[in-house]
Amino acid sequence: MVNRWKIQIPELTGEEERNLYIYLPDSYDWDKERYYPVLYMFDGHNVFFDSDATYGKCWGMKEYMDYTNTQMIIVAVECNHSPDNGRLKEYAPFSFHDARCGSITAKGTITMDWMVHTLKPKIDRDFRTISDRKHTFIAGSSMGGLMSLYAVTQYNAVFGRAAALSPSVWTSADKLEQLIRRTKIRQNTVIYMDYGSVELEQRPKVYRDFERIAATFFQKRALLEVRIVPGGTHCEASWERQIPFFMNTLLYEE
pLDDT (tens digit, 9 = 90+) per residue, 110-128? Predict the structure, then answer.
């Protein structure tokens, strides 16, 4: 079951409303004594429903969760759709300049502060969650993948596991690497990272940045799974096919 609510993030967009999607496994209604791990996801509009997805194709997370009977709550927040690069700003942990987009002023720290200090406490109050870091995960793709890597680093005491699909490390690889190096990352931190082979062929610099960030996490003794996806491209249909891989990593030994 996927519930949808209208929420506001005053720190980012004032009174403007956006969707919050919450997936609850079927057992949630009848197994009243059970508590569940929680996966937070970026770009919530692309996670569950084709009708809401930006390009008409979602990840199909509901179908996967139902088919595999995975006992987990998913909390997915819609992004900012402002034409003034609203999504890029909210999902940028570090400011950057791009020839196509111009100068992007980072609001990713505001996004994560809201998620950690406002959203997560509300979810933990309103739902039967296992709220410790071992059972609190975060995942996303593209800029959402970058934010997932930032979150599992900057908020390592909150998120124990993260999945980053095609993360946009090219926007700020140096700053992200520096953050990872100076952060105490607990050795039971689990990180899944992947990139599509096709998208990497098109952008050789991204390959080097992706390799460098993965190597830095490896040096910090994170429990790391890194994949180059054969034929993988930068789209929801490709990311959907990676769900079994990153979910198995996030839930390994659970």
Answer: 999 999 999 999 999 999 9
C-beta atoms surrounding 234 within 10 Å? 18
3-state secondary structure 84-108: CCHHHHHCCCCCEEECCCEEECCCH
* Confidence (pTM): 0.96
Q: How far apart are the C-alpha atoms of 88 and 32, rounded to whole Å?
A: 40
Q: Kindly report the three-state secondary structure assignment for every residue of 195-253.
A: EEHHHHHHCHHHHHHHHHHHHHHHHCCCEEEEEEECCCCCCHHHHHHCHHHHHHHHCCC
Q: Are residues 218 and 185 in contact, defined by beta-carbon separation less than 8 angstroms?
A: no
Structure tokens at 60: 């199909």
In angstroms, rounded to a whole number, what is the distance separating the alpha carbons of residues 12 and 182?
Answer: 28
Closest CA to 247 of 63, 44, 9: 63
Please state, in angstroms and rounded to a whole number, the distance separating the CA atoms of residues 205 and 49.
33
- Tens digits of residue pLDDT in 138-160: 999 999 999 999 999 999 999 99
